[in-house]
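Tokenised fold entry reproduced for absentees:

. . .
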Amino acid sequence: MSNSENEIFPFKILALDIGGSTVKATVLDQEGRMLQDYKKAETPKDATPKSVLETIQTLVKEFQNYDRISVGFPGYVKKGIVLTAPNLGTDAWKGTNFNKLIRDMLTKPVRIVNDADMQGLAVVSGKGLEMVITLGTGFGTALLQDGHLLPHIELAHHNVTKHSTYDDYVGDHALRNKGDEKWNRRMKRILAMLKTVFNYDRLYIGGGNADKLTFKLDENVTIVSNKDGIKGGSKLWQLDENLFMKSSIIQS
């Protein structure tokens, strides 16, 4: 579907944000405005594809007036197929065609991207190289150039110390076990590294733990809310379908 067709035929989008602790949902118009109240449910402790689908089905019962579905997923998704899901359980998810499962369950066209990528589409200015990180159960990242989503990099799996990945070092588990003060020192180190490695024009920080940051941020760093992030669901359907298919990140 082309952008011009989207403009001629307005539609409503069910936006789902699947996290390690909660699953969130709302219905958006094509401009990203919420048409129904934002709702959430706890992510199942045994977060298999089946249990997550059941949670989604219960959560969206009141959301019946929508035409398309956008999903932010906490892992690497390629053409609708899950390759990694570290905070849900990669062993249970790897190889799952989650696009097809949701499409079959809710009978609407579906687009899926990494959850940080979906947040990035919602919050960036569209000027220059912009980076989004999410601080929640794990550590999510997205990169966009002039508003265009770049191929996803699972930086969370990369070692930041000899024995710790980014997820291990500053994820929710580290925050609980090390405490706010030490976690903030770690985050200060992480932000300095990202600034040097990526040379971004602007950095956006989202996720449930973003409000735990206590040190002064650079002028080109902005804290964004989860509600802002889910609005990226509308942007997924504004992107050219052929470009999305060629990028190998999504399947409509």
Notes: The longest helix spans residues 172-198. Residues 1-6, 246-252 have pLDDT under 50 and may be disordered. The chain has ten helices and twelve strands. The two ends are 9 Å apart (CA to CA).
